[in-house]
Write a structure and sequence with these properties.
The protein is of the alpha+beta class. Helices cover 44% and strands 21% of the residues. Helix 1 crosses helix 4 and helix 15 runs parallel beside helix 16. The protein is elongated, with a radius of gyration of 36 Å. The relative contact order is 0.05.
Length: 650
């Protein structure tokens, strides 16, 4: 009731663990049904609502949050309990850490619940074994990270405490990276302060050398100053090259920050480099441009989400807001994680995307300013990450026609709520128009109460927009046909749509259009089947009228549709009471045919199952049935003549 919701960190995590313990105990030990815990909210409100009026005010909200968490966890706990019991059968006194790790990683079953259930069974959980498996998993993740840093060289290219202490001891000053905010200019006058070939790659194990060349493979360079952006704050690193006064060229493939040092990772392409050499930093600004566009649009996306879901929402959100939970921006995409309690609707996605595109079309300036932390925190529209510790002074980035210096003069002015204002150390555009376009590609849940949006800008947005327009034209064209042709188009378009990288809102709209076509196909099939059934029924009834004896053998092609066959025999049985029917229907394109035998109610002298079996003997037909009704599907339409002949002589 005070705003806390189950989550994976902070008080939300404590709340989640307490709630899940209660749900598990109720389901397993008390035999309670799914949803029992959420129903207790009403009782709590009746007992304590007068003392805590917020319980009455937010009863519906609290109930919905608990119900959703309970339902979500119940799927996990039920499977987890079954697996736990199964693994307990092989235990004597100890429940293995490996089994607990499996429950945790593969089934999402919390280890504290596993431990509690072990205690209830008189077992001891091997917590050390569990922690060892978790550490092993962590090491695998770390190994993947090291491989990334090493660029496939197999070296450990990290600067840990040993390396940074070495640099400080050698009197190497912190790297001045203030030039990272400068665009389209090489940074001249840099000095090589340290050269790194990898941990444990030198006799002392520290990894620093006086000179490097192509033979060293993966290397790292520390300069006195740089215009490279080191990976941080969710933004990927810069790449490019470093050229020295001696004529050497280093290709930079990665840039990382370790403490106060910027490490440029790459390989020497030409010449050799020595500590003390003068150097020029040449950043790949063509690659940086979409990174900056994606970063600026991430800020606008953050603003748009709050605007649509909270500020302009017509529903009472009970104190729930949109908080950033993580982000990643590189040259290919932007990814933004945020707190929200369910999927966004097509209308909400379209509204968010429209705001982002609107701000691009409005060509709004993007300003940045380093301000005192206490002054910057007073800005009314500030969007800061909860729990993040910001430096003082702090860099403020605002997507606003009003300069940040003017905003700081009157920080509580409500007009700032119309623009994005955040603390950020990343590289950004100068104007929103430089993003060129924005497409929100996807929105999905990644954890309880956490959603993820992926989007693209610039040429990638143009490609996605063009793909959507091209596909929509196909859908519109498909709507001009009907029947089996439309059915084929629906199948093809459905598969193609799911593989397209286009606007999520547009994809939902197109999915609805194709779905409507699918309903048209169903309606056409029903009408066609009814017409076909009537036509076939008239033919078999006519054949019965012109046939002597108690059996009618007739061929009437309507494909292999069993529903039509059933409808025909039902209608036949209402009109003909004294003659059994043997009906054959072929599908030339499938090179097979359907055989149906039917005896009207009351006829006892014809065994339909035996009739079909005798007629299709040796054809490879498969089917079955009873005395009064049987059918078989037979491969090869060439054998139809023989089947009809056998049926007549049965």
């Amino acid at each position: 009731a005070d705003g806390a919701v189950p989550s994976n960190d902070g008080r939300g995590y404590v709340l989640r663990r307490v709630l899940r313990r209660a749900v598990r105990y109720g389901r397993q030990n008390l035999g309670a049904e799914l949803g029992f815990f959420a129903k207790l909210v009403r009782t709590l409100v009746e007992l304590m609502g007068d003392t805590f009026p917020e319980l009455r005010e937010k009863e519906e909200f609290v109930t919905s949050i608990i119900r959703e968490e309970e339902e979500s966890f119940s799927k996990t706990v039920d499977k987890g309990i079954v697996e736990f019991k199964k693994r307990c059968e092989a235990c004597t006194d100890v429940f293995s850490g490996e089994d607990a790790h499996f429950l945790y990683t593969s089934m999402g079953f919390p280890v504290d619940l596993t431990e509690l259930m072990c205690e209830e069974r008189g077992l001891k959980l091997d917590m050390k074994g569990f922690e060892a498996k978790m550490e092993e998993e962590k090491e695998l993740s770390q190994a993947a990270y090291l491989e990334k840093m090493a660029g496939g060289s197999g070296k450990d290219m990290r600067l840990v405490a040993e390396q940074t202490s070495h640099l400080v001891g050698k009197g190497v000053d912190a790297t001045d990276d203030s030039a990272k905010y400068v665009w389209n200019e090489d940074l001249e006058g840099c000095t090589v302060k340290a050269l790194f070939i990898g941990r444990n790659e030198t006799e002392d194990g520290v990894g620093f050398v006086d000179s490097i060349s192509k033979e060293n493979g993966a290397i790292g360079v520390v300069l006195d100053k740089t215009n490279y952006y080191g990976e941080s704050g969710g933004q990927t690193f810069d790449i490019g090259s470093i050229k020295t006064s001696s004529g050497a060229t280093i290709q930079i493939n990665n840039t990382q920050i370790y403490g106060s040092f910027v490490l440029h990772l790459g390989e020497v392409r030409e010449g050799s480099v020595t500590v003390g050499d003068a150097a020029t930093c040449c950043v790949d600004y063509v690659r940086r441009a979409p990174i900056a566009a994606n970063h600026t649009m991430t800020h606008i996306l953050n603003f748009a989400l709050k605007d649509v879901l909270v500020t302009k929402s017509t529903e009472d959100q009970h104190g729930v807001t949109v908080d950033q939970k993580g982000s990643l921006v590189d040259e290919n995409k932007l990814r933004f994680d945020f707190s929200w309690n369910g999927p966004l609707t097509a209308e909400q996605l379209a509204a968010v995307e429209q705001i982002c595109v609107g701000q691009i079309n409005s060509a709004i300036p993007v300003d940045n300013f380093v301000a005192p932390l206490d002054a910057a925190q007073k800005i009314s529209s500030l969007r800061a990450v909860f729990g993040e510790v910001y430096p003082d002074p702090v860099r403020v980035v605002a997507v606003s026609p009003t300069p940040i210096t003017s905003i700081l003069e009157n920080p509580q002015d409500g007009q700032w709520n119309s623009y994005s204002v955040e603390f950020c150390g990343g590289t950004h555009l100068k104007n929103t128009s430089e993003a060129e376009g924005f497409v929100l590609l996807s929105e999905e849940g990644i954890a309880k109460g956490v959603r993820r949006i992926t989007g693209v800008t610039m040429k990638d947005a143009a490609i996605a927009t063009a793909a959507a327009a091209e596909f929509e034209a196909k859908v519109t064209e498909a709507g001009k046909v009907d029947g089996l042709e439309l059915e084929a188009q629906v199948k093809l378009l459905t598969v193609e749509l799911e593989g397209l990288s286009i606007s999520a809102a547009k994809k939902m709209q197109l999915r609805e259009m194709i779905g409507a076509f699918g309903k048209q196909v169903v309606a056409w099939k029903k009408k066609h089947a009814a017409e076909q059934t009537s036509k076939v029924c008239d033919q078999v009834v006519e054949a019965a009228g012109s046939t002597e004896g108690n059996k009618v053998v007739v061929r009437c092609d309507f494909g292999l549709d069993g529903k039509v066959a059933k409808a025909v025999t039902t209608a036949y049985g209402k009109k003909i009471k004294d003659k059994a029917l043997f009906l054959v229907s072929a599908d030339e394109s499938a090179d097979s045919f359907l055989v149906i035998a039917f005896a009207p109610k009351g006829m006892k002298d014809v065994d339909c199952k035996a009739w079909v079996s005798a007629a299709t003997e040796g054809t490879g037909g498969k089917g079955g049935g009873k005395k009064d009704s049987a059918q078989s599907r037979v491969p090869g339409v060439g054998s139809i003549g023989g089947v009809l002949e056998k049926a007549r002589s049965f």
